[in-house]
Amino acid sequence: MPDSSQAEFPAAPQAPSSGRDLPPSLAELLQQGTLVVSHRPWAQAVVDPVLWQRAGEGLAGGSSSLLALWGEPGGVHLAFWEASEGRAGVMTLRCPNGSFPSLGQLHPPALRLERAIRDLFGLQPEGSTDPRPWLDHGVWELRFPLGKSAPAVGPSPYVFLPVEGEELHQVPVGPVHAGIIEPGHFRFTAAGETVVRLEERLGYVHRGVEGLLVGAELERATKLAARVSGDTTAAYSFAFARAVEAAIGMEAPRLADWLRALCVEIERVANHLGDVGAICNDAAFARMQAFCAILRERLLRTADTCFGHRLMMDQIVPGGMRAAPPLDALRRLRELTGEIARALPEIQEVYDSTPSLQDRVVGTGVLSRELVNQYGCGGVIGRASGRLFDARRDLPYSPYPGLRFSIPVREEGDVDARVSLRIREIEQSLGLIQQIIDGLPEGPSFAPLPRKNVSPGEGVALVEGFRGDIFAWVRIDERGRVERCHLRDPSWFQWPLLEAAIYGNIIADFPLCNKSFNCSYAGHDL
Amino acid sequence: MTSDSRPPAPRPRRPSLFGLLRSGLPEPPPPVDDTLVQEIARKVEDGAKRRLGRSLALRLVDAGSCNGCELELHALQNPFYDLERFGLRFVASPRHADVLLVTGPVTRNMREALERTYNAIPDPKWVVAVGDCAATGGLFLEGYACIGPAEAVVPVDLTIPGCPPSPQKLLAGLLALLESGKKLGGR
């Protein structure tokens, strides 16, 4: 760490200072920058390096959570959420010299994001405590593909963090895993059976989505956004559409918002059902998986009859919905939600009353509240460790303010808490689906977007997918195309915590821990 | 000793889950597309059937998929489709596999892993490109990060298009692999 930061910020990031200097509020810092008017709906300001550094101290002090940190060729942006004021905002720092003060040196959750910014744009995070590449494995034909590109230097061995001690052994796993699962590398160091360190290496499914989005026609961009993470395609499409609509200053018809939420809640139920089954299966309790998979399959088939696609891919588009579902299909969906709701108590009872299962999940993979707060970790993972944040409640968007639902939260932070919360969230989402079907407003489900004379602008959106909050930022040019777009998966702030949750557990419990997190590889690697 | 004369109290029955299920699972298999069979029959060697019988071990490599294809491959194992009743099963190691399934627009970062997995599968072996990305590169052909269709890295015997292909389409495609062996046997 450089001296200046040591002097200004003596406390370690994990233990925020409790002394005389309160950490600066990012919302206050934002007012000191130059406000940008073409940015909607959150305030955006261009700041100088001093304010940027102060923002890092604010994040480290815990006054705000980091929502996103991303680059473009000439600068970097950060989005934050200030819980005490219920506000979000965006700070922008221009980087004429190709570098910016590292936030990661003060606030570790920013480290991997900064490594990704450097790999993609060539902007150097000054003072970063982790200079290793992240997404760039040395096999692209060029370096810094989205910035001032440079010739490739070829692959070099990835340096894992050193682990020292007697009788330690390493277990490398991946990128190709044993099951039907996305690729990533896990490097375990174990003392006997006990994991003393897990280090992840990701980036294997980096498809360059952000680069493909540069200058893309809206139709193509919409399809790309729907394929960032196929399991949460509806939520990504919702986030992207809302960001585009914010950027050009329009709103989708009311019916569209309701149908979008319907898709996202179906998606949440389907994924949670799959996860509850899969977690139990990883504890060798296959019966639960078979049962949950049947419910999931029936839900996907009903989604197919409603929206013409089992995963509801490409149904949510900027301007509204591609099509409105037929009424009899919606009726069938409503009936099915009743059946699933009636099955839930039995799922819960079997789960609670099976000792072989309980023995594996209770007290396994405990994640502390301090860490989920520090990382601004969203979704079930954050809420299972006591962090009550849900974009549907905290940065509410249509139609959720008009719907009744509760956000279950637990304190234990173990595998059991994450399973139980999923079951509770299924229940809540089924209630939402029923309310939406019963209360669908009249009117069109699509409003065409202006194709010419679009006033260029930037828009952001935060949508609660089944993994947590998905952040979307987009800049639209005067011809209505995407000039730049950044999509941040909730997994960015969850993957690092898996490394913490597995600490002190046995290797054999890793599949359970990993599945109870169910982070996205594709969404993270982008 | 009066308690002995009474019948023992019934033990509380634990819920079974499957009491909730309707019957009729698994569903009958989808009809096998004849053009798929012919496509495979052209490529499968005569000896394959004798050596493999009516059973194929599958190994999946996600080479850049969005995870959509994986979800539908998972669905093949649910009680509706029950893949294993056809002699098709997913195995953990490529050393145990006959068929390599590839999804995604092969990223440069996954190329080596895909090649090494392919090389680890013993002969005879087949490669199935699953989904539009593995079949054609999909939306990801341009750019610095993807190589393109699976064919660009490993020899592909069968493609199952779709974004993602439905479980029925996947099942029909994989059954075609088995059927082609049968037809070859009579040639």
Describe the 3D structure:
- The complex is a heterodimer of chains A (526) and B (187).
- Chain A has 526 residues and is of the alpha+beta class.
- Chain A is 40% helix and 17% strand.
- Chain A is built from 18 helices and 18 strands.
- Chain A has helices at residues 3-8, 26-32, 49-61, 111-121, 209-213, 218-226, 233-248, 254-282, 286-307, 327-352, 355-361, 369-375, 379-384, 391-394, 415-439, 495-501, 510-517, 522-525, and strands at residues 34-36, 39-40, 43-47, 65-72, 75-82, 87-94, 99-101, 124-126, 142-143, 150-151, 168-173, 185-191, 194-201, 316-317, 320-321, 457-464, 469-476, 482-488.
- In chain A, α2 runs antiparallel to α3, α6 runs antiparallel to α7 (233-248) and α8 runs antiparallel to α9 (286-307).
- The relative contact order of chain A is 0.13.
- In chain B, β3, α5 and β4 form a beta-alpha-beta unit.
- Chain B is 34% helix and 12% strand.
- In chain B, α2 packs across α7.
- Chain B is built from seven helices and five strands.
- Chain B has helices spanning 2-5, 34-43, 47-52, 68-75, 111-120, 131-136, 167-185, and strands at 56-62, 88-90, 99-103, 126-130, 158-160.
- Chains A and B meet through α6, α9 and α10 of A and β1, α4 and α5 of B.
State the helicity of chain A in percent bands. 40-55%
- Beta-strand content estimate of chain A: 15-25%
| Count of discrete domains of chain A | 2
Helix/strand-derived class of chain A? alpha+beta
Could you give a short account of the major beta sheet of chain B? 5 strands, parallel
The pLDDT mean of chain A sits at 93
Instruction: Count interface residues per chain for the largest interface.
Output: A-B, 56 and 52 residues
Number of strands of chain B: 5
Q: Which band does the percent of strand residues of chain B land in?
A: 5-15%
Through-space gap between termini of chain B:
78 Å
